[in-house]
Amino acid sequence: MSEEELREDGPAILVYARMEKTDKDKDYGVEGDATYVERELTLVTEAMLVAGDEVDDALDDMAEEMEAAIQDFIVPGFESAVIRLRESDIDVVTEQVKRPIGAIGLVWQIKYWTNWRPRSTANDLGADMEAFLRGE
Question: Residue 92 in contact with residue 55, Cβ under 8 Å?
Answer without folding.
Answer: yes
